[in-house]
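Posting this for the archive.
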Amino acid sequence: MKLYVVCMDSHWIRDAQMFDTKELNDEQFGALEPFSDENTDRWYDIEPTAFIGIIMAESEEIACRMIAVKYRYDYRQLYAFPAEVKEGASV
């Protein structure tokens, strides 16, 4: 068995946006009101990688199927890849 990271394929995610904060200092970031009308132009479309979970499984397909059952997703919308565990790290 291996440890797998399971995510949802961005093909199945619609209308995701992220707020652009990279030019703000810490003080500006702390005082930010992202949903105010003056900040509308800071929102931009993204294709996110939606992390679903980490699970021990025998294969990528089984990892997707197990996570799908646990969180009520369609396994066909998910993908998995082996997690890289650094030596000495606890899981």
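The two ends are 14 Å apart (CA to CA). The first strand starts at residue 2 and ends at 8.
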